[in-house]
Amino acid sequence: MRRRIYWLVPDLASARRTMDDLLLARIGESHIHFIARDGAELTGLHAANLLQSSDIVRAAQSGLVIGGAVGMLCGVGLALLGPLLDSTPQWGLVGALAIAGGLFGAWSASMIGASTPSHRLLRFMPAIERGDYLLMIDVPRGRVDEIEDRLAALHPEAHLEGVEPGIPAFP
């Protein structure tokens, strides 16, 4: 399990030096993510992708649950209506519509979530809009203190903004 460390870095030069120091500390580039305001320079930095900067995963999960529930309710309604139109209830519709509803709900909600900033990052938005760079580092649980101490010693201009207790494996 990894933990995500958040740092605010004041400018591009400092962000590049911080990334170099993290690479020297053997943190892989795929575990270092930067977010900056729109139009900001990110050359030489590993920019956060859509999964890390938006609410796409959270929205897809919600859409899956809601869509599956609505699909299941529609399936139950149709299955109970079946004996009025036919001789036997069609209980297979319940599962089929629950799956179809869940898939449609996840897809449609993820389209909305892709355009919504991550709820985890909302507290950093004022600083990002001022021009700071948000650095997110995913490190093994045992290295959190080591990395925090290293960055605090090498980059006094940067500010530790906290540690997220656990992050999903893929974003």
Describe this structure in words.
- By secondary structure, the chain is of the alpha+beta class.
- It folds into 2 domains: 2-54 and 117-164, Alpha-Beta Plaits (2-Layer Sandwich), CATH 3.30.70; 56-113.
- 50% of the residues lie in helices and 15% in strands.
- The protein has a 4-stranded antiparallel β-sheet.
- Helix 3 (56-85) packs antiparallel against helix 4 (92-113).
- It is elongated and about 75 Å long.
- Keywords: Membrane, Transmembrane, Transmembrane helix.
- The chain crosses the membrane at residues 64-85, 91-114.
- It comes from Leptothrix discophora.
Give the structure's gist in a few sentences.
The protein is built from six helices and four strands; from the N terminus they run E-H-E-H-H-H-H-E-H-E. With 171 residues, it is α+β, with helices and mostly antiparallel strands. Helix 3 (56-85) runs antiparallel to helix 4 (92-113).
Which SSEs are present, and which pair or pack?
Elements: E1 2-9, H1 12-24, E2 32-35, H2 50-53, H3 56-85, H4 92-113, H5 125-130, E3 133-140, H6 144-154, E4 159-164
Antiparallel strand pairs: 1-3, 1-4, 2-3
Helix pairs in contact: 3-4
Count structural domains: 2
- In total, the number of strands is 4
The proportion of residues forming helix, as a percent range, comes to 40-55%
The CATH topology name of the largest domain reads Alpha-Beta Plaits
Strand content: 15-25%
Separation of termini? 13 Å
Arithmetic mean of pLDDT: 86
Which structural class is indicated by helix and strand composition?
Answer: alpha+beta
Query: Would you list the SSEs in sequence order as H and E?
Result: EHEHHHHEHE
Biggest sheet layout: 4 strands, antiparallel
Q: Given this structure, which CATH class of the largest domain is correct?
A: Alpha Beta
Poorly predicted ranges: none
Keywords: Membrane, Transmembrane, Transmembrane helix
Protein name: DUF1269 domain-containing protein
Transmembrane segments: 64-85, 91-114
